[in-house]
Design goal:
The chain folds into 5 domains: 35 residues; 59 residues; 168 residues, 2-Layer Sandwich (Nucleotidyltransferase, domain 5); 62 residues, OB fold (Dihydrolipoamide Acetyltransferase, E2P) (Beta Barrel), CATH 2.40.50; 72 residues, no CATH class. 41% of the residues lie in helices and 16% in strands. Strands 1, 2, 3, 4, 7 and 8 form a 6-stranded mixed beta sheet that branches. A 4-stranded antiparallel beta sheet has the order 9-12-13-14, with no helix packed on it. It is elongated.
Length: 493
């Protein structure tokens, strides 16, 4: 039986001050002698419950097994870790131990309290390390809500951070992001710290990590030592974990609306620079900007030559004037049909080479089946097969200058597509800028056609107005002489 503090006070006073017996106190306060004996000497407080001892044999039986499972949990991904219910099912099913689920929950809670995770505060020397991680964030690009992969890097000493946006987390993007980060910092740190990313680690983790071949080349060329965190040890790179959250807050809240990845990157870079210029980390003496300037002096120098992280492939040019890569078709001039060309990939471009000479540089497709047909590559075929013009995909969904798209939209002629093909063929002998200028002038009439474009092509494109234009005035002395002669004639008359 438990009592309140007021009753406890009475028991203590009767026992200590008035020297009454336990029997007398029990009779006076209408309490059992057992309760009076429990509280009268001050050995037990009213609001403190006695901790019940666990049945020692059963607890000892399951303790080691629960500890083993909790230790294994630390090496597993979060979604695969066992909870108390899973541990109970394991003890009942595989171990055959008759135990209630509530008892297992209590044991798990107690063991976690007895074996807590502990951390050491860390201090980073200038130029010592840089930490890297990925984050997924949302942006509206060209009117479409898109999940973009953001590669974040942070210098823990100064707190300076930078981030770079990519359409995916491929090895291409991973390596390219490193080079961008090193160039942003103006040098290379002695160590680079990571999670066990598949783009860097072939197998294993921590000290046992086996690196990818492409990553080994990057590490060797820039002269840093790669350090991989132990499994489920996020605190080993806590700075970059915070940096991902900071980038999400300063650059992606609210959701940015841009026309391209390039515009999005400019936005993110500006927000990171503004953060560095205006923010001081709690407990740091200097602002991020000033600390970064000091840290740059301690960085290893960049190599003389930038590492080419692009991947190269060979591909055959198909009869439809395209090469295929990752489910997407990229067009190429028709004289290379049947030839084998080299494709060089970067995160945002696919460049086609033939015998060491660059043929064309495409923007990489963000999605599969987003085929890249360039209209100019098909002009020769369209000239030979004019009846196919109306159904030709390179005209319907191909890549062409905005002036050409506007021409198709505004032209009221029944054969607008054929007229556009003739314009591009007719203008193939003139400079591209002059051709596009002529098409734009025709578009400005709101009813463009082939004849108008030809007319503007025959004109000289107007140049900028001259500020130093001089006006030469004609001498008027001859008129003065005539007036004088006329005056003398009138006087003689």
């Amino acid at each position: 039986m438990t009592i309140d503090w007021d009753t406890y006070r009475k028991v203590r006073q009767l026992f200590l001050v008035e020297r009454q017996s336990i029997r007398a106190i029990s009779r006076q306060l209408h309490m059992s002698r057992k309760t009076v004996r429990k509280y009268c000497r001050g050995g037990v407080l009213p609001d403190v419950r006695k901790v019940m001892e666990r049945p020692a044999p059963l607890f000892r039986e399951v303790e080691s097994e629960i500890i083993r499972l909790l230790e294994e949990n630390k090496t597993l991904p979060k979604k695969q870790r066992l909870n108390a219910r899973n541990i109970w099912e394991h003890l009942q099913g595989e171990k055959g131990i008759a135990i209630s689920q509530s008892t297992v929950r209590k044991y798990v809670r107690e063991l976690r309290e007895r074996h807590p995770e502990v951390f050491l505060p860390l201090a980073h020397e200038p130029g010592e390390s840089m930490q890297f991680d990925w984050g997924d964030m949302n942006a509206v690009i060209a009117g479409t809500k898109t999940v973009v992969s953001v590669f974040c890097a942070v210098l823990p000493h100064s707190g300076a951070l930078c981030s770079f946006v990519y359409p995916d987390k491929s090895t291409l993007s991973f390596l390219h992001g490193h080079i961008q980060a090193f160039e942003f910092a103006g040098g290379v740190t002695r160590r680079c710290i990571y999670d066990n990313l598949k783009t860097a680690v072939k197998k294993g983790s921590g000290k046992n990590a086996v690196k990818q071949e492409k990553f080994i080349r990057l590490e060797a060329h820039y002269g840093f030592e790669a350090v991989f965190c132990n499994a489920a040890s996020g605190w080993e790179k806590a700075n970059v974990e915070n940096a991902v959250a900071i980038v999400r807050r300063i650059a992606f809240t609210p959701m940015p609306r841009v026309d391209s990845y390039e515009e999005l990157q400019n936005h993110v870079t500006n927000r990171c620079l503004h953060y560095a210029q205006t923010h001081t980390i709690l407990g740091h003496e200097h602002s991020i900007r000033d600390a970064l300037e000091q840290e740059r002096k301690m960085l290893l120098p960049l190599p003389d030559v930038r590492l080419d992280t692009g991947f190269t492939f060979t591909a055959l040019v198909h009869p439809d004037l395209t090469v295929h890569h990752e489910g997407t078709r990229y067009s190429i001039p028709c004289h290379l049909v049947g030839k084998e060309v080299t494709l060089c990939l970067s995160p945002f471009h696919l460049t086609i080479f033939y015998r060491g000479r660059e043929i064309y540089k495409h923007d990489r497709a963000i999605k599969k089946q987003d085929h890249r047909y360039v209209l100019e590559h098909y002009l020769e075929i369209l000239e030979r097969k004019p009846r196919a013009v109306e159904q030709a995909i390179p005209i319907k969904r191909g890549i062409m200058p905005e002036e050409c798209r506007e021409f198709l939209r505004l032209c009221r002629e029944p054969e607008a597509k054929q007229q556009l093909v003739k314009i591009l063929l007719f203008g193939s002998q003139v400079e591209r800028t002059k051709l596009l200028w002529a098409i734009q002038q025709a578009n400005n009439t709101r009813n463009p056609n082939l004849s108008l474009v030809k007319l503007y092509l025959e004109l000289e494109e107007p140049g900028p107005p001259k500020d130093d234009l001089e006006v030469q005035h004609k001498s008027l002395t001859a008129y003065d002489d005539l007036l004088q002669e006329g005056g003398s004639t009138l006087e003689s008359e």
